[in-house]
């Protein structure tokens, strides 16, 4: 018997046409997280097997890989003869304390001479005969002994670990996350990555009105997301000139609306330039003045590219739950100012009008300002153990 890890893909298996691409991407993503460990990996369209001396570390790491539905600690038998399966199954269940059990059999090779039901019954009988004081419970067994008959041999597993779910990162293409230092946008990013979107981030800073600490906080958040995204590029945009120009020339209640229209315009260009198809952000309906439906409509109007708002319909507490789970919450609540918070007027417009936006935007040379901001933008690469990134913090 050989102990190894068996991976089930879940949702993946329904994507018949690009399954090859999906699986290749998944394999590459798994290989990325296993960097530095000795392992051997094999896969077909139903299962992936990883052999390693360091099973615990492998499991800890692959638990974070999207596209994996279930992880099982599994035993590959020397052959699939009934005698071998019987001997090994008894040996494996005897290592455990249990009163009730069930045997479930799956045959991916239908030419195997015993059908699934019959084999399950036979193996159940073998366990009853060899282990004292146990009985079968088909509805609520303490241990579920899974036996899979595959072409090469038979496999037994009992321990299921929930995978991260979703699609392998990258299979759906690329997008750009507007990453602020808040609670919402990292969660939004995580959710988009989970659906297979490979992200880059954009962060708007306004030095000297915003501090280096505020930027570092965003870079720390990007680093958390990098674990799921196989690294992360952060585009840093100097927003100072645009923001000051808006502040000096545009009526205060429209500051945020116009500022966000500028952010969207820049984000669409950066996303497009990095071969992205969408913008992702952490807007949540009704949370602040710029997130009323009319605000969203007026702000969204400047871009053709779809804007995905994964947390749009979540309550703050639901967002916080995910933020804690992905370990971004403690970073997000650090008290550094954001470029939005600094220029926030006392009474931002709740129902902005598009005509007024057109009129006010005429008051500033916004195209040139956007051009300058994009021309001078910096890119920082973040990865799980990216030294370059650490040095910058
Ligand atoms: P968050 O908690 O994510 O900061 P928020 O509730 O503070 O969100 P806003 O400040 O209105 O809401 O921002 C809405 C979204 O716009 C953010 O979730 C983020 O996606 C984007 N955003 C805001 N400020 C910035 C910034 N300085 N750089 C990049 N994106 C930003
Ligand atoms: Mg914010």
Description:
There is one protein chain. The protein is of the alpha/beta class and 393 residues long. It has 2 domains: 2-165, VC0802-like (2-Layer Sandwich); 174-390, HUPs (Rossmann fold, 3-Layer(aba) Sandwich). It has helices at 19-33, 55-62, 82-93, 116-130, 184-194, 212-229, 240-249, 255-273, 293-300, 316-325, 329-332, 339-342, 354-361, 366-375, 387-392; strands spanning 2-8, 40-43, 47-51, 68-76, 100-107, 135-136, 143-149, 154-165, 174-178, 198-205, 232-238, 276-280, 307-308, 378-382. Strand 2 (40-43) and strand 3 form a beta hairpin. Helix 3 packs across helix 4, helix 5 (184-194) runs parallel beside helix 6 (212-229) and helix 7 runs antiparallel to helix 8 (255-273). It is elongated and about 85 Å long. The structure holds adenosine-5'-triphosphate and magnesium ion. Adenosine-5'-triphosphate (ATP) binds at residues 178-180, 182-185, 202-204, 281-283, 287-288, 290, 338-340.
Overview in brief:
With 393 residues, this protein is α/β, with parallel strands linked by helices. It contains 15 helices and 14 strands.
Tally of strands: 14
Question: What value does the average pLDDT take?
Answer: 92
What is the total number of structural domains? Answer: 2
Shape: elongated
Gross CATH architecture of the largest domain:
3-Layer(aba) Sandwich
- Rg, alpha carbons: 27 Å
CATH fold-level assignment of the largest domain: Rossmann fold
Strand order across the largest sheet: 2-3-1-4-8-7-5-6
Unreliable runs, pLDDT <50, ≥5 residues?
Answer: 384-388
Q: Give the topology string: H per helix, E per strand.
A: EHEEHEHEHEEEEHEHEHHEHEHHHHHEH
Question: Which structural class fits the helix and strand makeup?
Answer: alpha/beta
| Largest beta-sheet characterization | 8 strands, mixed
Q: Please give the share of residues in helix.
A: 40-55%
Beta fraction of the residues?
15-25%
| Hetero compounds | adenosine-5'-triphosphate, magnesium ion
CATH class membership of the largest domain = Alpha Beta
Name of the CATH superfamily of the largest domain: HUPs
What is the number of helices? 15
């Amino acid at each position: 018997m050989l102990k190894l890890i068996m991976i089930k893909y879940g949702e993946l298996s329904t994507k018949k046409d690009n399954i090859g691409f999906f699986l290749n991407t998944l394999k590459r993503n798994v290989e990325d997280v296993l960097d530095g460990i000795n392992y051997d990996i094999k896969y077909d369209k139903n299962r992936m097997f990883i052999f390693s001396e360091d099973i615990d570390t492998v499991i800890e790491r692959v638990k974070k890989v999207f596209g994996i539905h279930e992880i099982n600690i599994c035993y590959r038998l020397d052959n699939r003869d009934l005698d071998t399966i019987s001997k090994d199954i008894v040996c494996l269940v005897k290592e455990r304390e249990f009163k009730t059990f069930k045997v479930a059999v799956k045959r991916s090779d239908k030419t195997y001479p015993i059908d699934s039901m019959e084999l399950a019954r036979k193996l159940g009988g073998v366990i009853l005969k060899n282990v004292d004081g146990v009985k079968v419970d088909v509805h609520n067994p303490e241990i579920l002994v899974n036996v899979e008959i595959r072409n090469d041999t038979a496999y037994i597993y009992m321990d299921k670990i929930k995978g991260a779910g979703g699609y392998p990162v990258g299979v759906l293409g690329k997008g750009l996350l507007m990453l602020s230092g808040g609670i919402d946008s990292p969660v939004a990013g995580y959710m988009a990555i989970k659906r297979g979107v490979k992200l880059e981030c954009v962060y708007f800073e306004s030095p000297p009105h915003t501090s280096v600490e505020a930027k570092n906080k965003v870079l720390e958040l990007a680093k958390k997301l990098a674990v799921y995204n196989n690294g992360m590029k952060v585009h840093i945009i100097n927003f100072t000139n645009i923001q000051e120009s808006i502040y000096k020339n545009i009526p205060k209640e429209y500051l945020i609306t116009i500022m966000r229209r500028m952010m969207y315009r820049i984000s669409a260009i950066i996303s497009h330039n990095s071969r992205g198809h969408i913008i992702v952000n952490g807007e949540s309906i009704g949370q602040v003045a710029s997130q009323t439906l009319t605000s969203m409509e007026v702000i969204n109007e400047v871009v053709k590219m779809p804007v995905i708002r994964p947390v749009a319909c979540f309550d703050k507490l639901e967002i916080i739950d995910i933020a804690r789970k992905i370990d971004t919450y403690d970073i997000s609540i650090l008290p550094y100012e954001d470029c939005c918070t600094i220029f926030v007027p006392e009474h931002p417009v709740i129902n902005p009008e598009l005509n007024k936006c057109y009129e006010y935007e005429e008051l500033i040379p916004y195209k040139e300002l956007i051009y300058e901001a994009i021309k001078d933008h910096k890119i920082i690469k973040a990865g799980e153990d990216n030294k370059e990134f650490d040095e910058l913090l």
